Amino acid sequence: MLEKQTITCVACPKGCEVTVEHDGDEIIEIMGNACPQGADYAKEEIVAPTRILPTTVRVKNGALPLVPVKTTKQIPLEIIHAAMEIIGEKEVKAPVELGQVIVENILDTGADVVATRDLPKKIHV
Amino acid sequence: MIKLEKDVVVIGGGPAGLAAAAKVYDNGVEDVMILERDFELGGILPQCIHNGFGLHHFGEELTGPEYSQRFEKDVEERDIEVKLNTMVLDVSPDKKVFAMNKDDGAVEIQAKAVILAMGCRERTAGAIGIPGTRPAGVLTAGTAQRFTNIEGYVPGESVVILGSGDIGLIMARRMKLEGADVKAVCEILPYTGGLTRNVVQCLEDYDIPLKLNHTVTKIIGNDRLEAVEITEVDENMKPIPETSEIVEADTLLLSVGLIPENELSKKAEVVLDDRTGGPIVNEGRETNIDGIFACGNVLHVHDLVDWVTEESQIAGDWAAKYIKGDYKRAEKIEVKAGENVAYVIPQSIELEAEDRKRIPLYMRVSTPLTAVDIELYADGEKLYSFTEPFAKPGEMISVPLAQKTLDDLDEVSEIRVDIIEKEGE
Predict the structure, then answer these.
(1) What confidence tens digit (pLDDT) does each residue in B350-365 have?
(2) A-chain residues within 8 Å CB-CB of B150?
(3) If you classify domain A54-115 with CATH, what class do you get?
């Protein structure tokens, strides 16, 4: 069945309103995008929306109790909650380095979960 | 008391202070010091763990901590002096900075130039006066963000968010991902104050309702918040009593605006602009006080940190020029916010610069508009205009004013920007 859907592109903060005409997963036409990224984004939003997942992981003996992490690439939106469960069970030891892999290949997505900052050990004063 | 002398003192070690300090240094003024009240650099960025930073500046998408760490590294590599855990108490118009910390006690620093980069703070429950009781569980979105992302406490299980500013939207998703039931985001205006991408990725992705033209009219609960009363408002933002509903929640997050933090600026006799809440500046981001500059959220609240960086590098460039004496004033041109423009930064143009190609004018519209003409006028004569598909108050617009255009004008006293909806569209 032919359908028309309007999607707000979030490839950049400009936020183009992109209209996609599609038949199920088959894309017929994409309109309203200011750049090619908009077409890619709109297509993906129809077929299989994906997101970067930023969250935190508990740290033992860290200067702070948590270290922020993210997935190295976008993962399907529908498995975000499942990914949160796995990351929520993790605990790492300080010091942590920016880019350090916390979970490898989460849920077979090909994306690793990595730390997004350096976190030194707690200094006792 | 310890007494020091510095070429440039930067107050605040967030994204604005970091970028400004590195830029001062790169212009050959190496005697620069950053004063930061927190135990680490980065300002608010370490708690902004979400992605979406850096698309303009780096052409790639980073999280807040990653964006921050790049600039922290810039400062570290240059060996720029940083004092952490240091609270600045006073700045005088003759650029004496009084600060305190545990190691030095009281410190007085005589600076030749000061860069104000103190950022902003959130408007609180007290500032908006919601009727009802005063239980625990009513906090600003940024405080909740700090608890959740830095300190490791999720502040509640069932949440209502008042205000659709970016931090409110971001926290709606964050609390949802941490297992809270996020019931609604209420916005008193007919449009959201946040970025479009945040409405999509934080609310629509998780089916969190955005209730436009709605506000919280009552806070209910004794020790802990139990419920809030949500009411629709009319076009004059007056609540319509018959639309009220009670929503059970143990947490109310407020994302109702940010206020530039200018207590120190006032002590230095810096004149503020009522519209921005920040100092009035020229294009070098210099305030009315000679050699005192301001950049980032202390000057005006930004939606993207990328703009903070750009602005702070401008301030850093000119602060360095000021120190080196490469600083000439020309006739002052006032920059005016015209039709539908809430404000323009800078408020004046008065510096002579060699090999400058353009001056970016930062502005916001006062109301959402579609199919707009952005028009620049010099003393009422149209210079040029260009079109944009839409303009939203939540998204800052940067309009370049070409140096050549300025050079071709003689004796102009005012530049004005109008943003007008094109007729028939």
Answers:
(1) 998 888 899 999 999 9
(2) 64, 66
(3) alpha beta
pTM of the predicted model as reported, rounded to 2 decimal places: 0.93
Is residue B255 a contact partner of residue B167, using CB atoms and an 8 Å limit?
Answer: yes
- Cβ of A54 within 8 Å of Cβ of B150? The answer is no
Q: Pick from B361, B348, B365: which is nearest to B419 by CA? A: B365
CB–CB of B152 and A56 under 8 A? yes
- Interface check for B51 against chain A (CB to CB < 8 A): the answer is yes
Spatial neighbors of B59 by CB under 8 A, at least 6 apart, are none
Integer Cα distance of B89 and B36 in angstroms: 12
Is residue B115 within 8 A of residue B22, CB to CB? The reply is: no
**CB contact B304 to A (< 8 Å):** yes
Structural domains in chain B, CATH included, are 1-121+259-326 (3.50.50.60), 124-256 (3.50.50.60), 329-425 (2.60.40)
Whether B53 contacts B66, CB under 8 Å? yes
Residues of A in contact with B201 (CB under 8 A): 10, 51
Q: Which tens digits make up the pLDDT trace of B23-73?
A: 999 999 999 999 999 999 999 999 999 999 998 899 899 999 999 999 999
- A98 reaches B (C-beta below 8 A): yes
pLDDT in tens, B161-192: 999 988 999 999 999 999 999 999 999 999 98
Q: Which residues of A touch B177 (CB under 8 A)?
A: 55, 80-81, 84
- Report yes or no for ipTM above 0.85: yes
Q: Residue B5: pLDDT above 70?
A: yes
Could you tell me the residue ranges of all domains in chain A?
2-47, 54-115
